[in-house]
């Protein structure tokens, strides 16, 4: 059954590849990001019957509200929302970090996701839909001084809280937890990391589960080069 899927951070990386997989599977996509040119190119590739591009800064509440209104006006409803937009850290730890970078990261990774949820929840409640968030392997344990990790701990907890709120209306919330993924998120190639396709397959897996199945959290990690037993000797 075809779904209408809104994806933030859709112009590159995980958002873009998930949109490709979704369209290939017969779904319709709302592509949201700041990069209007990249979004327009994707719509041209996918076809205007399958996709719409909406320019949006996720840290701006008015822009997010308008994004959701435009998405629903175009496709009529929302079935899935993928709150994928996110930023990484510019330096390791807290002491060496840049306060401006901290603020930007918290605004995008925490506030941006919260705003996406606020404005899409009424539509997901109506459709008994599915919200998918992006956590991280960095939210599964201690990461030395990492503000980025802390933003993903927020997402991990927020996913459970949203799951209760949307669950009361018959909807579902899933938090994907990727390990290191080779995307434009990093400045240098990461040959030992996951590929965006790995995350896209996980995304498609969770949104295509039957209505009676809930996957609240799904870790997706690179397979260790050494056998697990060898790492603990």
Characterization of the model:
The protein is α/β, with parallel strands linked by helices and 233 residues long. The chain is built from 6 helices and 7 strands. A 7-stranded parallel beta sheet has the order 3-2-1-4-5-6-7, with helices on both faces. Helix 4 links the parallel strand 4 (80-83) and strand 5 (130-134). Helix 4 packs parallel to helix 5 (147-167). The radius of gyration is 17 Å and the shape is globular. 40% of the residues are buried.
- Structure class: alpha/beta
The helical percent reads: 40-55%
Order of helices and strands: EHEHEHEHEHEHE
Shape: globular
User: For the residues shown, what is the average pLDDT?
Assistant: 93
Radius of gyration: 17 Å
Instruction: Give start-end ranges of low-pLDDT stretches.
Output: none
> Could you give the distance between the termini?
49 Å
Main sheet specs: 7 strands, parallel
Number of strands: 7
Instruction: Give the strand order of the largest sheet, numbering strands 1, 2, ... along the chain.
Output: 3-2-1-4-5-6-7
Strand content: 15-25%
- Tell me the number of helical segments per DSSP (H or I, 4 or more residues long): 6
């Amino acid at each position: 059954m075809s779904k209408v899927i809104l994806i933030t951070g859709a112009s590159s990386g995980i958002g873009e590849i998930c949109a490709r997989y979704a369209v290939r599977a017969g779904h319709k996509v709302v592509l949201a990001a700041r990069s209007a040119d990249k979004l327009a190119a994707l719509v041209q590739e996918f076809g205007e019957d399958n996709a719409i591009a909406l320019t949006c800064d996720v840290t701006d509440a008015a822009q997010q509200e308008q994004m959701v209104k435009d998405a629903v006006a175009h496709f009529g409803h929302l079935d899935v929302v993928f709150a994928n937009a996110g930023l990484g850290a510019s330096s390791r730890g807290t002491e060496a970090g840049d306060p401006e970078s901290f603020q930007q990261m918290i605004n995008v990774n925490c506030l941006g996701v919260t705003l996406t949820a606020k404005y899409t929840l009424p539509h997901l409640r109506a459709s008994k839909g599915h919200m998918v968030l992006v956590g991280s392997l960095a939210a599964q344990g201690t990461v030395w001084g990492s503000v980025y990790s802390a933003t993903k701990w927020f997402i991990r907890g927020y996913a459970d809280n949203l799951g209760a709120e949307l669950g009361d209306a018959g909807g579902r919330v899933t938090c994907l937890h990727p390990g290191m993924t080779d995307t434009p998120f990093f400045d240098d190639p990461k040959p030992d990391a996951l590929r965006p396709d790995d995350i896209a397959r996980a995304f498609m897996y969770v949104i295509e589960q039957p209505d009676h199945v809930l996957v609240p959290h799904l870790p997706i990690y690179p397979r260790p080069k050494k056998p697990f037993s060898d790492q603990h000797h």
